Amino acid sequence: MAEVLVYVDHVDGAVRKPTLELLTLARRLGEPVAVALGNGAADTAATLAEHGAVKVLTHDASEYADYLVVPKVDALQAAHEAVSPAAVLVPSSAEGKEIAARLALRIGSGIITDAVDLEAGAEGPVATQSVFAASFTTKSRVVKGTPVITVKPNSAAVEAAPAAGAVEALAVTFSDKATGTKVTGRTPRESTGRPELTEAAIVVSGGRGVNGAENFAIIEALADQLGAAVGASRAAVDAGWYPHTNQVGQTGKSVSPQLYIANGISGAIQHRAGMQTSKTIVAVNKDAEAPIFELVDYGVVGDLFDVVPQLTEEIKTRKG
Amino acid sequence: MSLRIVVTVKYVPDATGDRHFADDLTVDRDDVDGLLSELDEYAVEQALQIAEDADDAEVTVLTVGPEDAKDALRKALSMGADKAVHVEDDDLHGTDAIGTSLVLAKAIEKAGFDLVVSGMASTDGTMGVVPALVAERLGVPQVTLLSEVSVEDGTVKGRRDGDAASEQLEAQLPALVSVTDQSGEARYPSFKGIMAAKKKPVESWDLSDLDIEAEEVGLDGAFTKVETADARPARTAGTIVKDEGEGGKQLAEFLAGQKFI
Ligand SMILES: Cc1cc2nc3c(=O)[nH]c(=O)nc-3n(C[C@H](O)[C@H](O)[C@H](O)COP(=O)(O)OP(=O)(O)OC[C@H]3O[C@@H](n4cnc5c(N)ncnc54)[C@H](O)[C@@H]3O)c2cc1C
Ligand SMILES: Nc1ncnc2c1ncn2[C@@H]1O[C@H](COP(=O)(O)O)[C@@H](O)[C@H]1O
After folding, report:
1. With contact defined as beta carbons under 8 Å apart, do A48 and A14 qualify?
2. Cβ of B169 under 8 Å from any chain A Cβ?
3. A228 Cβ under 8 Å from any chain B Cβ
4. Residues A25, A114: one domain?
5. Best substitution site from B67, B113, B116, B118 to test ligand 2's pocket, by max atoms within 8 Å of Cβ?
6. Where is the Electron transfer flavoprotein alpha/beta-subunit N-terminal domain (chain B) (predicted)?
7. Which residue segment(s) compose the domain that A223 sits in?
8. Residues A53 and A112 in one domain
9. Measured from the CA of B7, which atom of ligand 2 is nearest?
């Protein structure tokens, strides 16, 4: 059976959920061979094996942390040479897309980014994408070389599928371009203890209607009752009320949770681009004409300062 | 010595308009109003600021696109860029990211450069991969997705706010940078700028000027193929209630019914 390379996104050996989703998709195309790089690479093996990786190729070197993108491209290219896979799958993070693109160019292949589904086809994998702010759904194929495809978080269910997960050291020789862009400083983002925005099953967002950084406590309180991540519109981010890392939309994160709750957000096309594929959409907005109501499964026309705290209280009561 | 900056800008269909596909499943660029991609305005802005901080610099804006893409170049010129290059050729219709990066890289080399400045993503394709591809082709460092950028003594420095961390980056020129919409508001063209732009040079190059064969680009040269494109079915109309004191409770009831609580 053909092998499929899966690039592993992990933090010091802890595998992030989108990679496990990729393994589910990879199994539709062939046998997943995972590639884990950098600090803790070998520690990923047990989790990856549990989710279907037949092999885990690992390599650690300081270059992965000290220089941007290119060392990882060199390694993925080495893995591609070693395995001759039927496809290469990479999580659709900003960095993942850059790695995938450069790999595709080097191996003479086409690239598809931000797939939301993948299926095996007679002529190779078929990728589903959601385009033009999710107003169209396309199906595409790579028609030259080994398909390189990046896949968005929440595109498949994580499924356990125990496999060998044999760890093998990957031999990597860095190119002379590998050290071109030096990382001279790194400030890790502080953890909020809340789920990762792109991975969360529920996202509670606030927009200009929240009207102040201090009022975001209302949004956070609801999020915490639901075990949700907190999102924000660009208007709220630009006003300095919430960090840019929480922005949902075209120039922020693209989310596709089971439930999205928009509070005080009008629903501009650039915001929709990042949330329109959510399974269930709920909005609270005092303007009945707000475009967000065109998208909702349930909408409350009202003041979020009344509705949201009441909702939070009611959930607390129901939970007992 | 003069700092030669090339800014890559894309002409895109207006996102607030009715964007759709043409019969051959390429993005329809004829029947839809277009404009300079808003995300590339940030690239033009940062390029102009870098040029203003340098002793001597020249900013060239470059686009690959149809006839109307000249509008995007005019806008960038009226913001303050010095000159423009328009790569236009009938054989370019349907070119994908890999092909676009080839055309851009050849044009950038022909124009001559110390620094390339790109946007974070185009607002139509939203792939965000062309800058990395162009850097790979040019063989220069990629310093991408910066929310802050500066150039000093032949070194470009910047800050990249990633998911896990905020990173300080550094590379020697020649290099390619891309900037995000967090890098700072783009300036509005002044009346003087608009008038001056009319006299600024716009060069037109075709594929033969760049030694590119027709087969390498266009729909036939593409590495990917769109097989189907379907309008997303409209969401079924939801329930909308007006809050009359119980809105939060009603919403809780809905969420409970959907098993979220
Ligand atoms: C290139 C580009 C990229 C962009 N990228 C993004 C992006 O990634 N993400 C994004 O979000 N935007 C993005 N935008 C901006 C987008 O166009 C909108 O400006 C933005 O989404 C508006 O945010 P908002 O809905 O919070 O604010 P507004 O549009 O001002 O809406 C606020 C809403 O709150 C309601 N409201 C006010 N007070 C209350 C109250 N007390 N109770 C209930 N409701 C209340 C109002 O009725 C209104 O509907 C982008 C724009 C451009 C040009
Ligand atoms: N046809 C084009 N002409 C000029 N620049 C482009 C073109 N396509 C992409 N770019 C540049 O590459 C960036 C990212 O585009 P993309 O990878 O398509 O999302 C844009 O912000 C532009 O700076």
Report:
1. no
2. yes
3. no
4. yes
5. B118
6. 24-214
7. 202-319
8. yes
9. 23
CA A60, CA A40: separation in Å to the nearest integer? 8
- Under DSSP, the state recorded for B137 is H
Tell me the best of A250, A284, A305 to mutate to test the pocket of ligand 1, counting ligand atoms within 8 Å of each CB and taking the most. A250
| Helix ranges restricted to H, A85-174 | 94-106
> What domains appear along chain B, each with residue ranges and CATH number?
3-221 (3.40.50.620)
Which ipTM was obtained for this model? 0.94
- Cβ contact A142–B223 (<8 Å): yes
Q: How many domains does chain A have?
A: 2
Q: Inter-chain contact A136–B231, Cβ cutoff 8 Å?
A: yes
B-chain CB neighbours of A244 within 8 Å are 147, 161, 182
Instruction: Look at ligand 1, atom 49, and give the residue with the nearest C-alpha.
Output: A266
Residues A230, A138 within the same domain = no
Q: Ligand 2 pocket, B40 CB below 6 A?
A: yes
In this structure, are strands B34-36 and B11-13 parallel, antiparallel, or unpaired? antiparallel
Residue A255: phi, psi to the nearest 5?
Answer: -120, 150
Q: How does pLDDT run along chain A (320 residues), one tens digit per residue? A: 799 999 999 999 999 999 999 999 999 999 999 999 999 999 999 999 999 999 999 999 999 999 999 999 999 999 999 999 999 999 999 999 999 999 999 999 999 999 999 999 999 999 999 988 888 999 999 999 999 999 999 999 999 999 999 999 999 999 999 999 999 999 998 888 999 999 999 999 999 999 999 999 999 999 999 999 999 999 999 999 999 999 999 999 999 999 999 999 999 999 999 999 899 999 999 999 999 999 999 999 999 999 999 999 999 999 88
Task: Report CA-CA distances (Å) from A202 to A196, A261, B200, B207.
Answer: 10, 8, 52, 49
Atom index in ligand 1 nearest the CA of residue A235 equals 23
- Region of A264 (left: φ > 0; alpha: ψ -120 to 50; beta: rest) is left
Tell me which chain A residues have a C-beta less than 8 angstroms from the C-beta of B147.
244
A207 Cβ contact partners less than 8 Å away, ≥ 6 residues apart:
A232, A233, A235, A236, A262, A263, A264, A265, A266, A271
* Among B93, B23, B42, B44, residue whose Cα is nearest residue B65: B93
